[in-house]
Specification:
This protein has 10 helices and 16 strands. It has about 300 residues and is of the alpha/beta class. The radius of gyration is 25 Å and the shape is globular.
Length: about 300
């Protein structure tokens, strides 16, 4: 029960993390509706007060106590040097929330081979402070300027000598004839909170509940459930070919010559394994989707 009508002020990211975050919240059981003209979405949980903010700003507002908690990338926590508590690392497989890298990139045709070669040069990036810290660690003195976007173009136009840009696969950099010469940092999506919120027993419990459900939704990504019946005499053979999350659930049927088997597998394996299950003697094979998988 909501004690004294308390509310948890939760920051949800706008931009590249938004779609994946809202999808995971939906699978976790929270219906979040976002209006294109409002930064205040609605949610079907009276104990949560959500607000949409750019991931770049999230950690600052959480640190200052404007928000109790929020979702953002670890890169922006480092950039803002925010004093927040990282409650959970959320790796959203297949949802553009997998780990990403900030890389130092230069023109393919350049003679730059390492960060040391950029001493006295100009670098453009949105991740200014983290880049400066990286250069300082490597004892390199360079001019780092903030870039609002289209950073790759600045190298081609010879406005800067190098850039620090976000990448997942490197395809965008290659398309702009750029090559990586160093990784500045690796970032994952974080569920963060401020210290005051964590000290509040009600808010802490509410955040833990949200994280549990989000992790369950994330864990279920790319997995499906399988149910089937098989002759008991063929069970041992079936178990050899059946990849299971841990061990499949086996239940006796009214016909003692048959058993029911239920398991969870990677969805990408289904098209290969169902024909094998049929050959092994399985019948009534049912595949079903998963919303949450709580370990």
């Amino acid at each position: 029960m909501n004690q004294g009508n308390k509310k948890l002020k939760l920051g949800l990211p706008k931009g590249s993390l938004s779609e994946a975050t809202l999808k995971m919240f939906a699978k976790a059981g929270f219906n979040v509706v976002v209006s294109s003209r409002s930064y205040i979405p609605s949610i079907d949980d009276v104990e949560i007060e959500p607000i949409m903010l750019r991931a770049q700003e999230m950690s600052r507002y959480v640190s200052e106590g404007v928000l109790d908690c929020g979702i953002t990338g670890n890169d922006w926590i480092l950039e803002n040097k925010s004093d927040v508590i990282r409650l959970a690392d959320l790796a959203y497989a297949k949802q553009s929330m997998n780990p990403v890298r900030w890389v130092l990139a230069v023109p393919e045709c350049s003679t730059f081979k390492s960060v040391k070669d950029l001493n006295g040069k100009r670098i453009a990036t949105e991740l200014v402070q983290v880049t400066k810290d990286f250069l300082k660690k490597n004892k390199v003195s360079a001019d780092v300027e903030f870039s609002w976007g289209a950073t790759e173009v600045k190298v081609a136009a010879k406005l800067v000598d190098a850039i620090v840009e976000l990448t997942e696969t490197g395809s965008s950099l290659r398309a702009h004839n750029l090559k990586e010469i160093a990784t500045i940092c690796v970032s994952t999506t974080q569920f963060i909170a401020n210290k005051a919120a964590v000290r509040d027993s009600w808010k802490k419990k509410k955040m833990e509940q949200i994280i549990l459900l989000l992790r369950g939704a994330i864990e279920a990504e790319g997995k499906v459930g399988l149910k089937m019946n098989i002759p008991a005499a063929k069970l041992k053979f079936l178990l050899k070919i059946l990849p299971a999350l841990r061990r499949p659930t086996i239940s006796n049927l009214s016909d003692k010559k048959w058993v029911a088997v239920e398991t969870i597998i990677e969805e990408k394996l289904v098209r290969k394994i169902i024909p094998e299950l049929k050959e092994a003697g399985a019948e009534g094979v049912i595949e079903y989707s998963l919303n949450k998988l709580i370990q």
